[in-house]
Design brief:
The chain is of the alpha/beta class. The chain is about 20% helix and about 25% strand. The protein folds into two domains: about 1-65 and about 160-195, TIM Barrel (Alpha-Beta Barrel), CATH 3.20.20; about 75-145, M1 Pyruvate Kinase, Domain 3 (Beta Barrel), CATH 2.40.33. The chain is built from four helices and eleven strands, in the order E-H-E-H-E-E-E-E-H-E-E-E-E-H-E. Helix 1 crosses helix 2.
């Protein structure tokens, strides 16, 4: 059961527990750290009162997703057939002609013909040329791109600057400081591609 800002009150969580739920997911992409920690404490208190130790809490952190960078305008409209250069520079403020991204090995993990999904998959582009530190793509679909949006490259071994972002690190430190009863486990879920990305 996912716990978030709309269902994190003690009454609602107690109702979930009474229905037999023993696995709770905290989505760290929504709400403040204080809200998340409050929900976790409530869950512990409810199960402690029931003298029940067989339960788990999953902290689903955002991790460091591949993203396009910031834009010079709030949004950019792309039409099918538009061509844009994707640069290995996340600090670049993008335009309709050139976008930045946070993938340092972009030019080494794609091939001509590969598809790149921008704006969480809402816009599809195809690689048409690869340079030293940039990739040219042609839009296969139209759509609107916003600021700092997630992107996906299927089957590519994407290297990123950090698997755990700074917000996740701060949350992890607070979680480790919590006093938790025996039987309660925290599992941290990151956006990673293999075990080496975590360690």
């Amino acid at each position: 059961m996912t716990i978030g800002p709309s269902c994190d009150s003690r009454e609602i969580i107690e109702q979930f527990v009474q229905e037999g739920i023993t696995l709770f997911r905290i989505n760290a992409a929504h709400g403040t750290h204080e809200q998340m920690l409050s929900s976790i404490k409530i869950i512990h208190e409810i199960f402690r009162k029931m003298n029940h130790t067989r339960y788990s809490i999953i902290i689903d952190t955002e991790g460091c997703f591949p993203r396009t960078g910031h834009l010079t305008t709030p949004e950019i409209e792309f039409a099918t057939g538009d061509e844009v250069t994707l640069c290995v520079d996340h600090e670049l403020h993008g335009t309709k002609q050139k976008l930045g991204c946070n993938i340092p090995n972009l030019t080494r993990c794609v091939r001509v013909g590969d598809k790149i999904y921008l704006n969480e998959g809402k816009i599809i582009g195809q690689v048409i040329a690869i340079g030293e530190d940039q990739v040219d793509i042609k839009m296969l679909t139209s759509g609107t791109l916003g600021d700092n949006k997630k992107m996906f490259i299927p089957y590519a071994r994407v290297k990123q600057n950090a698997v755990i972002n700074q917000n996740d690190k701060a949350l992890l430190r607070k979680l480790l400081a919590l006093e938790t009863p025996d039987g309660a486990f925290h599992f941290l879920s990151f956006n990673c591609q293999n075990c080496e990305d975590i360690f």
